[in-house]
Specification:
The complex is a heterodimer.
Chain A: E1 4-8, H1 13-22, E2 27-30, H2 36-41, E3 48-53, E4 63-66, E5 69-73, H3 78-83, H4 85-90, H5 92-100, H6 104-107, H7 112-117, H8 124-131, E6 135-140, E7 143-148, E8 153-155, E9 158-159, E10 167-174, E11 180-189, E12 195-207, E13 210-219, E14 226-227, H9 229-235, H10 242-255, H11 267-289
Chain B: E1 5-9, E2 12-16, H1 24-31, E3 50-53, E4 56-59, E5 72-74, E6 81-83, E7 86-88, H2 91-98, H3 108-121, H4 127-133, H5 144-160, H6 188-193, E8 208-214, E9 220-226, H7 228-232, E10 236-241, E11 250-251, E12 258-259, E13 267-268, E14 274-280, H8 283-292, E15 294-299, H9 306-310, E16 323-331, H10 334-340, E17 343-351, E18 363-369, E19 382-387, H11 392-403, E20 410-414, H12 430-440, E21 444-447, H13 450-456, E22 462-471, E23 477-489, H14 495-504, E24 514-523, H15 537-555, H16 559-566, H17 586-601, H18 605-608, E25 612-614, E26 617-633, E27 642-649, E28 655-659, H19 668-680, E29 687-691, H20 708-735, E30 742-745, E31 748-751, E32 754-757, H21 758-767, E33 773-779, E34 795-808, E35 814-824, H22 831-850, E36 856-857, E37 860-861, E38 879-885, H23 907-919, H24 930-940
Parallel strand pairs in B: 1-5, 8-21, 19-20, 23-24, 28-29, 35-38
Antiparallel strand pairs in B: 1-2, 3-4, 3-5, 6-7, 8-14, 9-13, 9-15, 10-14, 11-12, 16-24, 17-22, 18-19, 18-21, 22-23, 25-26, 26-34, 27-28, 27-33, 30-31, 31-32, 34-35, 36-37
Helix pairs in contact in B: 2-5, 11-12, 14-15, 15-23, 19-20, 22-23
Classes of the chains: A alpha+beta, B alpha+beta.
């Protein structure tokens, strides 16, 4: 009972699509494998005939500026994301989230695509990408197409990607301009099962002491990645001060669906600690946005 | 048509056929036999399997081998350079050895490879950068501060080309020629090069692989068991059930209540009970076959905790019911005591099950061999059991008992152990592999994966402890009453002994006139609980030391002062009626920790335990906490405490010292070597150490109760002394001089003007028909059983710790910033090894306080993977200051007593007391729950 029979390493997307058409099924794409390998080894995933290694697909390991967008291949290891200067410039929140995912040895193989493809609504990379207004590029046998990032998520652990037919190729992010910045932070609970209990990413554009635009993502806020849409609307055009932040927080709390998760955190606790976290993240993004970028 | 995997490993190119489902770790270990890469968890949690792929560290246990095609791999075996047969260590390896960063050694390849990658990228890393890089590379011996220092020293050496700078470790205040000075481990070099062999690294010709089918239900009667499908699977060689047990069905350490396998109609008492065992041609087939075994159960109601177990109307798990033992401590008159008290406090505390999480999972290999070790027909074979065990002679007895054999047919060949901490005292796979080797006539390896290790082996007892304490206004404690419930799980293991220690120590290291303690050690349907560093005292010290701070607050007395005025001292009578006649360094420990606290903090005595904040971070509150403890050295309670050692002089003038005592990373082999070197007046490298082989080494007894430095240290010492006396006698006779004229100095025996090397001495003795080999069986001073008064233990170690914490009042998060630990160890035989024990003990205590909880859900294990059981890593490591206090005990070797446990015991209450001092939240249940802290604060503040 081998966990897999064939391990194939397509060099490009067309080889991968070819494999989708021909390779023995069941077939599962594997990126870093830091979750999938455990699922296979621990029996949560049935053994498969074919593992299709996406880290060998050239298009999926690119990290580059394309026009007015940043492209991040789904198979780029998160460690590279945490260190790459392009990410540090255009997606600080993502750099910060990537640096917090697991430990260095795992980060060297784990990928952003894998982090997202599991469709967990509050994964660190996912929350950062949500605030950064990413789009996902998907390849299928009929070609590639783009969808808004959040449309990848149908529910906890449920991705809209068609299994065994589609690959998540990468993410497109708008470039960061002057007076725009982002930030990501999270709070852990080291006891027991030791998982992050809440995380938050904010992207904003600043004009002197005024918020021009803002995007706020908080996890776990719903069964799919959640944005504080009402709080965002409220803050747009407002001056940044304690009063507006307090009001925004109130709106956020009224809208968010925190739940209690056994052995991690109660909804109560999350409602309580989001206060400090939100202030902290928005404050950091705000301070960063004062700077003029050296582009 | 499959492609080959072409890869370069340590500069050697390989082209290999892919094997479906193979990981890089398997390829390296099984096909290239590069066994320096270790598997601690198989789930990318521990980092022991770290290798470099194209220069970047990765976890090889979840890295598909086929992905390594075209890659350049570096493993631990690739760092040292072998030039003309001489090994030149990499500076990292050298620094790990010299700084004493190597203990059990199992994590070391991962630590060094991770650090190696860091230094390639960053030649001058600071502490934060090192911690960030080593975040997920766990060390359960937990010498994190030393690992960090070793990396810094190696980095400097690499930058400057200068030799690795040595650590500054103060000597003992009672130094001799060898003992009392820092000394390197004899096994350190092989542990940093990857050459060290642990049980799973061994392979025998024709070896089969075994797997046990576990019940996976917590309480049931086994109705049916169908092994036909498993037997029919291709590659399966044997499937055995309870019907196939040749001898006694049960095993156990003190009480034989643990079935080797559960038979039809018999009771399953926990999820880890074995129903059947399989031997097959590969690990995969064995696992597949085990999954094909079908069991039917009549499920029974589950007993989830010891309080429930004692209630009426509960199912009875064992023939004598659910009570393993009611343990009683009685001293003085409680009514009188509480009547005298001005203040009485009472509180109940809870501690959870915790797991040792030694990084090396259990592995046993049983090998049938002919008595003369010849090949061919196996008739009359013996079984050799290769295993890392804390009690090799007990393994031998237990295997023979279940096999129905004379013990002489079993030999336990102890292997290097990747940590034990009490968790490798009970038999795990030893009997099962023996049974399978017996029926197949082939070597059988039984390796637990981390999941099975977590499910099956005995844990630390969960407890409920109620303490009622009474004191005079001036702070004198006059009465202490406690009631303990201990969850010993499905089987006794060492439960009775552990809970006895919890009970006798439950009033703390204090001189109290009236003491009463009742403990109920109860069977439940949880995994068995047994020995775990601290042996019950970890739990009761948390309770009583929390009470001490509550009392200090109530009486408005400084917590340090309250402990000082009640501290046990020479002349005190313990709770069990033992007069302490010597070696009570508690007050000095208290004084020195207080002094250090004042020094490093710059605060006054009053300020130490008050909350402190800085203006820009008012939500981060700091404070110190304080706790004291004591812990017996040795078995005590009337059990004969015996260890044997051989010391032999060889033809080349070197010595070997042998004892079947366990080296599990704690450093006993260094202690034995140093002691023999001391007594024979030779350099330590002239002494080799052999441990844990029941054919070749005399019984050293169990490695438990912080006893080995004392008992095997003494056995080694007296064996060496006796040998020296024999040499003296022989040389006096031979050279016709008085024995007093024979001197031993610097490896030379001076016989009235003639200088003999030990090689000469060997020749002379052999010429006289004498064998220069001595066996000494040392018996520690007699002790008395609990309840009879008198000396229950022959020595106690004392420990005091202070912890500085920072609590986030918004989130309840707790950070431990500093720990100061003073331990009265009698005498520091090897100060370097001692430091490793103290740092590791503190970290294990910190894990116990802040992160570790083995979670059960109605008899089922929730924390069944390492990912769910949080062992503290380097990121949580505080600054640890180790203070050694040396009040020698006359009978100990050079005055030494135990240290292995005491250094871990006060950490938890020191931390929880500090949390209270910072934010006023009393922790009465471990591990600390940050949500509970935050909630108490926001409720108090009416938010």
């Amino acid at each position: 009972m081998n966990l897999w029979q064939n391990f194939i390493r397509p060099k490009n997307l067309s080889e991968a699509m070819d494999a989708f058409a021909r390779a023995a099924r069941p077939l599962v794409p594997i990126a870093g494998g830091t979750d999938l390998m455990l699922d296979l080894e621990q029996g949560r995933h049935e053994p498969v005939q074919t593992l299709l290694d996406v880290t060998s697909i050239a298009e999926m390991t690119l990290l580059e500026v394309r026009g007015n967008e940043l492209f991040i291949g789904a198979a780029v290891p998160v460690n590279r994301i945490s260190l790459d200067p392009l990410i540090a410039t255009h997606a600080q929140a993502l750099a910060e989230a990537a640096a917090l995912i697991a430990g260095p040895q795992v980060r060297n193989v784990a990928t952003l695509g894998g982090n997202v493809a599991h469709a967990l609504p509050a994964a660190d990379g996912t929350i950062a990408l949500t605030a950064l207004n990413a789009e996902a590029e998907i390849a299928g046998i009929t070609g590639t197409h783009r969808i808004p990032f959040q449309e990848l998520f149908l529910g906890p652990g449920k991705s809209s990607l068609k299994h065994g037919e589609e690959l998540l190729v990468g993410f497109h992010l708008p470039l960061t301009n002057n007076h725009q910045a982002s930030c990501f932070k999270r709070i852990m609970r080291p006891q027991g099962v030791a998982l992050p209990i809440i995380n938050c990413a904010v992207w904003l554009e600043r004009e002197n002491d005024k918020v021009n635009q803002i995007r706020i993502a908080v996890g776990p806020g719903a069964s799919t990645p959640w944005r504080a849409a009402e709080a965002e609307k409220f803050l747009a055009g407002k001056s940044m001060n304690d009063e507006t932040i307090n009001a925004a927080l109130e709106i956020l709390l009224a809208q968010i669906g925190f739940r209690s998760s056994a052995r991690r955190a109660s909804a109560d606790y999350r409602r309580h600690i989001v206060d400090g976290l939100f202030r902290d993240v928005i404050q950091s993004a705000w301070e960063r946005a004062v700077l003029t970028l050296k582009l | 048509m499959k492609n080959k995997i072409s890869l370069t490993v340590n500069n050697i190119q390989y082209s290999l056929d892919p094997i479906p489902g193979e990981t890089l770790a398997d390829l390296l270990r099984n096909r290239l036999r590069l066994t320096g890469t270790k598997i601690g968890c198989g789930e990318a949690e521990c980092g022991a399997c770290t290798v470099l792929v194209d220069g970047e560290p990765i976890m090889s246990c979840i890295y598909p081998a086929e992905r390594a095609d075209g890659k350049n791999i570096t493993t631990i075996e690739g760092l040292a350079q072998r030039v003309h047969e001489v090994m030149k260590l990499h500076p990292l390896q050298e620094a790990f050895v010299e700084h004493g960063a190597v203990q059990c050694g199992f994590c070391i390849p991962g630590q060094i490879m991770t650090a190696y990658a860091l230094l390639k990228r960053n030649p001058n890393p600071n502490s934060d950068e090192i911690r960030f890089a080593l975040k997920d590379t766990l060390c359960r011996c937990a010498g994190y501060p030393t690992i960090e220092n070793a990396i810094i020293a190696a980095a400097e050496s690499l930058r400057t080309g200068e030799p690795v700078k040595l650590p500054n470790i103060p000597d003992s205040i009672h130094t001799h020629n060898v003992v009392g000075h820092t000394h390197l481990r004899p096994d350190a070099i092989e542990k940093v090069t990857g050459d060290a062999i642990y049980t799973d690294d061994l392979v025998f010709d024709g070896m089969l692989y075994a797997k046990a089918r576990r019940a996976m239900v917590p309480h049931a009667i086994l109705k049916k068991l169908d092994i036909t499908k498993a037997k029919a699977l291709k590659g399966v060689v044997a499937v055995l059930t309870a019907d196939d047990i040749p001898g006694e069905h049960n095993h156990g350490l003190v009480i034989f209540d643990w079935p080797t396998m559960i038979g039809i109609g018999e009771r399953v008492r926990y999820v880890g009970d074995a129903l059947a065992i399989v031997a097959a041609e590969s690990q995969q087939i064995a696992e597949q076959a085990s999954a094909l075994i079908e069991a039917e159960f009549d499920l029974q109601p589950v007993i989830t905790n010891p309080v429930q177990a004692r209630q009426a109307g509960q199912p009875q798990l064992h023939p004598n019911g659910n009570l393993l033992k009611h343990i009683k401590v009685r001293k003085g008159d409680m009514d009188k005591g509480f009547a005298e008290a001005d203040v009485i406090l009472e509180h109940t505390f809870h501690t959870p099950i915790t797991d040792h999480a030694f990084l090396e999972p259990e592995c046993s290999i049983a090998v049938p061999v002919k008595p003369d070790r010849s090949s061919g027909d196996l008739s009359g074979f013996r079984l050799e059991i290769y295993v890392g065990s804390q009690i090799p002679y007990q393994d031998k007895t237990q295997v023979a008992r279940v096999m129905g054999w004379d013990e002489s047919r079993v030999r336990v060949v102890g292997q290097l152990m990747g940590g034990g901490f009490g968790g490798k005292e009970d038999v795990m796979g030893q009997i099962h592999s023996a049974m399978l080797a017996n029926v197949t006539g082939r070597p059988v390896k039984l390796l637990f994966d981390r999941h099975e290790s977590l499910l099956v082996h005995p844990k630390r007892h969960a407890t409920q402890i109620r303490v009622k304490i009474g004191a005079k206004k001036n702070g004198r404690i006059v009465a202490c009453e406690s009631e303990l419930y201990g969850d010993t799980g499905a089987y006794a293991s060492l439960g009775e002994k552990v809970m006895t220690r919890a009970t006798t120590h439950s009033a703390g290291p204090y001189d109290i006139k009236h003491v009463r303690a009742d403990c109920y050690a109860m069977y439940t349907n949880n995994p068995p609980a047994g020995a775990f560093r601290g042996f019950g005292v970890t739990q009761s010290a948390f309770a009583v030391e929390s009470m001490m701070d509550m009392l200090a607050e109530k009486l408005n007395i400084e917590p340090v002062e309250l402990r000082r005025m009640n501290a046990l001292h020479v002349g005190s009578i313990t709770n069990t009626g033992q007069e302490l006649k010597e070696s009570v360094g508690l007050t000095e420990c208290i004084d020195r920790v207080e002094g250090e606290m004042l020094k490093v903090s710059g605060l006054s005595k009053v300020e130490l335990f008050k909350p402190r904040v800085t203006l820009d971070t008012p939500h981060l509150v700091r404070s110190w906490g304080f706790a004291a403890a004591y812990k017996n050295t040795g078995l005590g309670g009337g059990a004969p405490d015996i260890s044997g050692a051989d010391v032999e002089l060889y033809e080349d003038g070197t010595f070997q010292v042998r004892s079947s005592s366990a080296e599990m990373g704690q450093g006993l082999v260094s202690v034995m070597r140093m002691i023999v070197a001391e007594e024979m007046s030779v350099a330590p490298d002239k002494v080799r150490v052999l441990v844990m082989d029941t054919d070749l080494t005399p019984n050293g007894g169990p490695t438990t109760a912080s006893r080995q430095t004392y008992v095997t240290g003494n056995a080694s010492r007296y064996a060496a002394k006796t040998l020296r006396d024999e040499i003296t006698g022989s040389m006096a006779e031979k050279y016709d001089v008085k024995p007093e004229q024979i001197k031993f100095k610097d490896g030379i025996v001076h016989v009235n003007g003639t200088s003999l090397t030990y090689a000469d001495v060997y020749k002379e003795m052999k010429g006289m028909g004498k064998n220069p080999c001595v066996r000494y069986e040392y018996e520690a001073p007699k002790t008395q059983p609990l309840g009879t008064g008198g000396d229950m233990h022959f020595a106690f170690s004392f420990g005091v710790q202070a912890a500085e914490v920072e609590v986030n009042t918004q989130t309840g998060e707790v950070r431990v910033l500093k720990v100061i630990a003073a331990n009265d160890v009698g005498m520091a035989v090897n100060p370097l090894g001692l430091r490793g024990q103290v740092e590791g003990g503190v970290m294990m205590g910190l894990g116990n306080a802040l992160t570790e909880e083995f979670i059960m859900d109605n008899g089922y294990v929730v924390t069944d993977h390492l990912a769910r059981y949080r062992v503290p890593g380097i990121m949580l490591t505080p600054e640890i200051t180790a203070i050694i206090v040396e009040h020698p005990t006359a009978e100990g070797p050079y005055g030494a007593k135990g240290v292995g446990e005491i250094c871990s015991i006060p950490t938890t209450p020191a931390i929880t007391n500090a949390i209270y001092n910072a934010v006023g939240v009393r922790i009465d249940k471990t591990p600390v729950d940050q949500e509970m802290i935050a909630r108490e604060i926001w409720e108090r503040e009416g938010k």
